[in-house]
Amino acid sequence: MLTAAVLATASCDLGPARHRVEAPRLEGAPAWSYEVELLPRGELDVAAVFLSPPGPLGVDDDARPFVRDLVSDPDGRRVRYRFALREAAERLMDPETAISAGDAWIAPPSTWLMHPEKPGPGTFRLHVVTHPPQKFAAGTHPAADGSPDTYEAPTSALDDASFAAFGALSLQTVTEGAARVEVAVAPRGMKLTPAEAVGWVARSLHAIAAYAGRFPAPRTLVVVMNGKPGNPTRGETLGEGGPAVLIRAQEGIDDTATRDDWVVTHELLHVALPSLSREHVWLSEGIPSYVEPIARVRVGLTTPEKVWLDLVKGLPQGLPEAGDEGLDRTHTWGRTYWGGSLFCLVADVRIRERTANARSFDDVVRALAASGADVESHWEIARVLDTGDRATGTDVLASLYREMALAPGTVDLASLWKRLGVAVDGDRVKFDDTAPLASVRRSIAGR
Q1: What is the pTM of this model?
Q2: Rounded to a whole number, what is the distance in angstroms from the first to the last CA of the chain?
Q3: Which residues contact 181 (CB under 8 A, 6 or more apart)?
Q4: Contact 272, 326 (CB under 8 A)
Q5: Which residue from 19, 247, 439, 445 has the least number of CB within 10 angstroms?
Q6: Pick the CATH number of 1-165 from 1.10.1040, 2.60.40, 3.40.50, 2.60.120
Q7: 28: pLDDT confidence band, cut at 50, 70 and 90?
């Protein structure tokens, strides 16, 4: 964090500013107000006003070297500085701090907005000025009063605020029911056209809504940029102050290939689910990992054979090994992703068995979506389990949690595949429709 001592040495009259921020006088004004202008060289001119003396101010640690020309009033309530956004993005290339995509730069507001170490109550308000053809997009919620190019969120959200993007961007919006997803594409280096990137997001959004009954987040930002050469498509979701997803697309990916790509669907499922504590990250990752291929197969974006082939090959990585203490206490990569997915599959099968296939894991996710919770909502795991069990009329989730999360709780996968009628030989899948749970298998991964 930048310290108060730094501010003291730079204290002076701020002088004239093109976009001057005056100290708010109205009751209920935001605790912190920011006026930001994107300058032609990829720098940000930032003026900030704090309702009360802010004490020590700072930005993300890695972003400190890019704060320039810092000046403040003697009490520190009015601050002005430049932030070298282009330089930070090109040097850091870190999606959680700043990353460059040609003449577009993606960085959460915590990177470039100086703010108090101790946020206190209240909201922050952000107004951004750009000059065509430059553009701006943010996951942070638009201002409630409808002011253009203005965003606001609780001050407590700024340290972990979601992605924002500046510069050469193509901006389009897709809708699914009441949900709106704003897609910001940084086209430099991408084989995909902006329209194709938007189609990629739209297909994923539709698959989730078809599975869950709705997409609960009213507004989400998805930023699509070209990824690092040699890397597969990667995604990351942030949710504080408003959800946003960053997709770093595999180099050279085209429209046909996006139809078989799982990353956007997986990340949007994170947006559509309540957040859990770190102890329960296995379920936060397990539900998207399990639901993603099923949601896509039901709208024709993949095949049942591919769904079951991946499960048969991947789920053994989620089984407990020697010394395992259960999903809540063993946080290896395999137990987190595949172990969480295994929990969901076993729950799905048990719910269907107990209800003669009348209820399923679909109902669990639909109940979560119907609650209106999304990634901004922070739930205890007991609430998730209870919501799901009420929706299915069973106690499957609660009992399976005791079995697999509080204890190692292994699963006989060979027996499960036989009962479902799934046999895999190399990359070939054969289904047995005379198997005891063949109807369950068809219901899980059928259109």
Answers
A1: 0.93
A2: 52
A3: 173, 174, 175, 201, 202, 205, 219, 220, 221, 222, 268
A4: no
A5: 19
A6: 2.60.40
A7: low
